[in-house]
């Protein structure tokens, strides 16, 4: 089992009830961190908290929508009271939709931008603002390989994830001198409920065929890099946008 040196740190994960966020919650619990979970529904958060606590660490949950600015502030207060001031944030909540650009509904465009980008800004403002006041903290935001280039049928998602890469860089330069690091991970194809719901099996097979490591990633493989970036092992890393994609974005021609 890896040790990230995050024992007794207080780390909040948005979207912590499923997929990549949930995998990060479990990795943090195994490392001895105190874990704060934000997700939409209490009923989804409860079982995650039980599993975290089974590792003998403190955990706290807050059901909310990341688009709600007031709720982000209330969540930060709640966690501070229950398990201590949050000094690490993994902003992982997100949605994924698909539609050709020429018929893409305006409402879908707004939803994806609101959750994936504005929600992430609001979360970073609430938790990162307090880290700035205390002069220390580390934030990892969830981008995507779709934040590095285009993807047909995914204009809204691609726009939101390009925004996330920019947001991470901007926060990094604004908050660096306040002792707060901000980095972005850019997963490729990761086997989660979100991916299975959005990508036809034949498309997944085609992507795997183009991926130098020859497979999809696992949620735990995103979580481990997020934890490394949250930890002091990455003490001189800020403003980075790091692909975790099995080499998918490293080149166009992947077969000899
Ligand atoms: P997932 O659906 O398994 O988990 C996402 C979680 O976010 C869910 O628990 C959901 O309830 C929560 N959530 C959604 N909207 C929310 C809101 N408005 N407020 C609060 N919580 C909300 O998905 P996942 O695959 O683990 O994806 C997590 C993140 O990783 C997303 O931002 C996604 O864009 C990104 N990502 C995933 C992949 C992949 O292949 N799975 C690749 C690149 C990036």
Automatic annotation (TrEMBL):
Example GO molecular function: oxidoreductase activity, acting on the CH-OH group of donors, NAD or NADP as acceptor
Alphabetic keyword roster: Oxidoreductase
The keyword Oxidoreductase is assigned to this record: yes
Highest taxon, organism lineage: Bacteria
Statement: the UniProt record of this protein carries the keyword Iron-sulfur: no
Record family assignment: Belongs to the short-chain dehydrogenases/reductases (SDR) family.
Name of this protein: NAD(P)-dependent oxidoreductase
Species in which this protein is naturally found: Kumtagia ephedrae
Lineage start: Bacteria, Pseudomonadati, Pseudomonadota, Alphaproteobacteria, Hyphomicrobiales
